[in-house]
Amino acid sequence: MAWLASRLAFHACLIVAVVLSCFVLFHIVPTDPARSILGPQATEAQVEGLREELGLNAPLATQAARYMASVARLDFGRSYIDRRLVSDEVLKRLPTTLVLAAMATSIAVGYAFFALWLIGRGKARVLPVLDFAWGTLPTLFSAVLIALLAVHFYPFRSYTGQPDSLGNWLTLLPPAIALALYPMAILSRTIQREAGTREIAGLVRAARARGIPQRSIQFRHVLRNLMVTVLAVLSNLLPQLFTATFIVEIVFSLPGLGALMLKSILQRDLPMLEGIVVVNTLAIGGLYALFDMVYPLVDPRVRGRYAR
Amino acid sequence: MAESRSALWKVVVGAIVLVLLVTLYQSFKSQKGDESAVTLRIAIETEPERLDPLTVKNPKTFLMLMQIYEGLLGLDESGRIVPAIAERWESADNGLTWRFAIRKNARFHESPIFGGAKSRPITAEDVAWSLSAVCGPGSYPAFVLSDAIQGCADFGSGKAKDVSGIKVVDGSTVEVTLIKPEAFFPYRLTTGWIAVLPREMTAPENKEKWGLSIAVGSGPYRLVSSSDSEVVMAANDAYWDSTRVPQIKKLVYRVIKNDQLRIAEMDKGAIDLMPLSVPMLPVFLDGPRKIKPVLTDKYAFKEAPIYNTNLLGFNLNVVKDVHLRRAMFFGVDRKAIVEKLLYGYGDAMAGAAPPGMNGFQPSFKMDAIFDVERAKQELAKSTYAGEEIELFVHDLGGSEQIGQIFQDQMKSIGVKVKLNKLDMNGVIGRIIKGDAPMFSMFLDYVFSSPELVLLNLFPSSKRPVPNFWQYSNPEADARLERLRTMTGEAAVRESAQVEALIMKDVPALFLFRQITLVAHSKRLTKLSINGHGHYQFERAVLAQ
């Protein structure tokens, strides 16, 4: 319990540090938010009025303190572009990104199971070729390719903005496949390598000698022993996958966090960017914290180590 | 035992597959159902901004905005003012005061923002409130009115509590008093930015949703749903002009950012209309302004000469030598840039006002403008000693390519140009700070008359913005002021002469006006697009 509390405290400190440093970084960029809001044609008097209203004339330390207090209340301010609430906008787009990442993870894990099944049946020779293909295709290229194929052969292409209907979930399937390709390759390769180790081979031999059916050997005995490695690989892959959703969202024109981030960078919409970075940090920090909690559950050695 | 378990397993899997197939079919059918004969599906390349005329910046969002909202006045395809919410208007005191009579049968769209009543008529109070909101703090289009209406700028900077120049005369009349007379004031009001909005938009329960899930105007279409990937509108069957109740009952705007995917979707028949971005043009063309015959058989095309300009500006405090600027003026081959960059879809121009704007006659004969010999003579008269002139370019509107072509053309007359690429906001920042010797810029004009364009860009009083070039010429200032009270042919003629006078000093190299090529289904006919890029779908016909 103490260990869990220390891990959570560590992640909380990390998030505070990221929020603060991203505020400082974004505010040393030479840009004038009031001018961004009012445009190049606004008079200097108008711009000055808005600067005062937004509190931009205050010293940076005061602005940072105000910002941290607002973030603590989950108030990230308003977009410089069209004055919408950053928190609303980020939360509105988060489900699309999360569903996309979850679907891609499911596809990658499903493919890993398939690889394990093929290994159990001794038909894994095709896997290295496939894994090489999935692993070497750049996400941008595979996303465009899959999107073009979808236009010609897949009927679900109209996304209404939220994953709230079967049609919308089905629309997310091609981008999820594009996103899953790289994790598929890594997980499959990891499973092939681990399943071929002496320990696992001995385990399989022993189970066969005891007359246990092959399916049971693969999915109960082998998988349980591979779980820690698979989780370790997944915990490293998920942040990368979360970032890759940004590329896929742009190619498939999906309104997720990635598309919003690119738009905000191009428009120098700093409050929106800060909101996205904070949510991204929270999501990835949360994922790591989750993995920290899951390890002891699946591995008695880890459990034992922390119990001491 | 094992056999019966296996059979059961197969039945379960079979049932799941069957259920999945039925659900998929139903879902596909419901998607297809949207694509009825009276639905026009439009592809757009960027996500829509908030559908709020007071904050919108992206011209692509205007494509949608102008279907929902209307202002006092509109503009037809030929550039003439047409009545909208105002059915009549008149000026007094030589154009210092303007009275607008509000149409009695104009109503806002039905919306929950009106509480029990589903909708309500537009009143003079709504018009006065909307014009004041445009002047208000944080309003992006404030610049359209702030230097014209009395008290507008003070209201915008928080110095006044209301706009002194906007007055409700009675329930259906609004009076606007200007700072100085303007015979052409109505041409400020034709842009989609100056819309009539319901005051209920600021109610606490509507404020955050405004422009996102709620957008209520009085235009020919009303908002049904809006997300960052799709905007759906339905025909406003209660539109005040019964002759223009839309025949196209539904508009679906789909965001497809990737050019290849937009083309593929159009090819598949899933899209009925798309404006072609410049990188897409080579796919559609055989040569400059020549569409491939195989595509003209398949689709219809429309050219939209929208009011815009692409220019290279000078900071006159840095590039002081007028002969050097003139050398560049005569040495730049505008037509070559249009051919190379826009595949012919543009009009070369040397002055600020684009062709076709309110009868404006260009002050230059374009065939005589490009003159290398004259450029070299001007350069010889200058004090230019071969130093590099820094040109700031950005990442939008082909700015960098324009810079590169310009750099090559200048090399041939002996002027060295160095490109410095920043993002668009960065370039604007440098212009305002005054440390960009030259800069690339494009302007979408919100004004629909040349007098306004000139009065906005060149008076000394407009420095540092929007007089980006820091231009100051007392004679030009005086003649621009005189334009305020001129009307008709005299105003058009004088505008051309003042423009020619200003261009002698070459504050900027105006290069071209871009023409948007729109590809659409042959089912769509009678499409008209005005100079503000307003697709007047209520006039169009979609064959069954």
Using brief descriptors, characterize the structure shown:
heterodimer, A: 308 residues, mainly alpha, B: 544 residues, alpha+beta, 6-stranded mixed β-sheet, 4-stranded mixed β-sheet, 18 helices, 23 strands
Distance between the termini of chain A: 12 Å
Number of separate strands of chain A:
0
Average pLDDT across residues of chain B?
92
SSE-based structural type of chain B = alpha+beta
Task: Note the total helix count of chain A.
Answer: 14
Gyration radius of chain B (Cα, Å) is 26 Å
- Greatest interface and its participating residue counts: A-B, 54 and 57 residues
The level of helicity of chain B is 25-40%
Plain-language structure description:
The complex is a heterodimer of chains A (308) and B (544). Helix content of chain A is 79%, strand content 0%. Chain A has 308 residues and is mostly helical. Chain B has 544 residues and is α+β, with helices and mostly antiparallel strands. Chain B is 33% helix and 20% strand. Chain B has a six-stranded mixed sheet. In chain B, strands 1-10-9-8 form a four-stranded mixed sheet, with helices on one face. In chain B, strands 4-5-7-6 form a four-stranded antiparallel sheet, covered by helices on one side. In chain B, helix 14 (399-413) links the parallel strand 17 and strand 18. The longest helix of chain B is centred in the first third of the chain and has 32 residues, at 2-33. Classes of the chains: A mainly alpha (308), B alpha+beta (544).
